[in-house]
Amino acid sequence: MRFRWKRESRMLSAVMEDYIKAIYAIRSDGQERVSTSALADYLDVTAPTVSSMLKKLEERGLVDREEYKGVTLTEEGELVALEILRHHRLLEAFLTERLDYDWADVHDEADRLEHHVSDELTDRIAEALGNPGVDPHGDPIPDADLSLPEPGDTIRLATVAEGEPVVVRRIRHQGDEELRYLADAGIRPGVELEVVDVAPFGMVTAEIPGGEQSLPEEIARLIEVVPAAEADELEA
Amino acid sequence: MRFRWKRESRMLSAVMEDYIKAIYAIRSDGQERVSTSALADYLDVTAPTVSSMLKKLEERGLVDREEYKGVTLTEEGELVALEILRHHRLLEAFLTERLDYDWADVHDEADRLEHHVSDELTDRIAEALGNPGVDPHGDPIPDADLSLPEPGDTIRLATVAEGEPVVVRRIRHQGDEELRYLADAGIRPGVELEVVDVAPFGMVTAEIPGGEQSLPEEIARLIEVVPAAEADELEA
DNA sequence: TGCAGGGTTTAGATAAGTCTAATTCGCGAA
DNA sequence: TTCGCGAATTAGACTTATCTAAACCCTGCA
């Protein structure tokens, strides 16, 4: 069943789409209801601005709002979020695979374009790439029906035992600096590595093809991995 | 010499870019000075709207304005126009060549995206395509330094003598309908054809690979061709 | 139980881009 | 030379998205 005809007739402004995306992102980070101030922080605008925008989103039926408490996405709001996510992640994948972008640099370009590519173009990109299930950071890409593939089970690199070979599956991120750091370290989805040392203050040292890398704990915590054995299984 | 750093620091709104593009397009159609009403027509807004926008563009140094007379692009305005043209035409070329779009359908998608692709992305697209000199309609693409390749000499199909084989070089257009018409007729840049008949009221019948096509004169006038002999020369 | 402080909302202003209605300008015809 | 008409501009209002300042709500601590 497809609801694709809806989005382009919905005609949300890019700004509104950004609010929906932000609510989705913050919500995914744990909170059930998303607060005005959390959104203000995330979007770098003032609280009154958020407050008035939330009222508009409520009128449009995209969020449920409880005064002084916060908002949640309605079913329709959820679909909008998933559509933007699909655009964003497919753009990232395309830029990386077909236009030779570094996977740590695609975020900004995708952020601007995601609001302006048609669903038609998005679908063509998906097809050209063979309908990939994940983007270059390992984040799952909603399919054309907007259902989000369940990512397989992963564990955080920070919790891996020394000596166990693992394969990087996904890099969680908000800002670009962490991605840059990891890209420079040669750590990206698909890379096999092995923790060789965990220092007292959380510095994790891992062996990767081509050398060793030391990572601060807060960076290591962004890396999701699976045991190498398990990864091999999936290849086959 | 490159001036590329300028555009993205100029930070024009998409709307302003559309006005610049419109002035460029109307100017290319003959007029030296572009009138308020011509712009209002072209952009489908009212004259007062254009008037106030032209004042802003003048303040930004993008147009020279003579009250009650019209505007011309300044040197900087010209560069903006060429940058947008480069974005637009490379996008069209890319969508057609790499994402299997029909060359008659790419216009709208490119119109939306041209304001949001970075120069970086534009350059990567150009490189991926081998720095093409023309877009799918045969329109010249400004290079990275924003100089516009001189298109070779062409003649209008409407003026071609019966029996002379020619090759289509370029399709001039404003709306999409003519492009659709020609695409459906199988006439596009690169196709070889021969005029077999010109009827009293300007209906032009041409033989193309795969059959014959009759075209109204106003459509035939949009088609620029070169003698087949000349075209072969350039291939070699 | 009440109040202080922090988060939220309301009120009112601003900037961009658009509109309609009213005014002004410029130029060709009488 | 002047009149009148069409084109251009000015005036003022509306919408979207933003801000600051002020008022309001809620809750945890005394």
Describe this structure in words.
Two copies of one chain form a homodimer. The first copy, chain A, is of the alpha+beta class. In chain A, 44% of the residues lie in helices and 17% in strands. Chain A has ten helices and eight strands. In chain A, β5 (192-198) and β6 form a beta hairpin. The radius of gyration of chain A is 19 Å and the shape is globular. At the A-B interface, α6 and α7 of A face α6 and α7 of B. The structure holds a DNA duplex (30 and 30 nucleotides).
Helix-strand topology string of chain A: HHHHEEHHHEEHEEEHEH
Helix count of chain A, per DSSP? Answer: 10
Kindly report the spatial arrangement of strands forming the biggest sheet of chain A. 3-8-4-5-6-7
Shape label of chain A: globular
Oligomer: homodimer
Task: Extract low-pLDDT stretches of chain A.
Answer: none
Biggest interface between chains:
A-B, 17 and 17 residues
Number of strands of chain A: 8
Mean pLDDT of chain A: 90
Q: Specify the structural class of chain A.
A: alpha+beta
The biggest beta sheet of chain A is recorded as: 6 strands, antiparallel
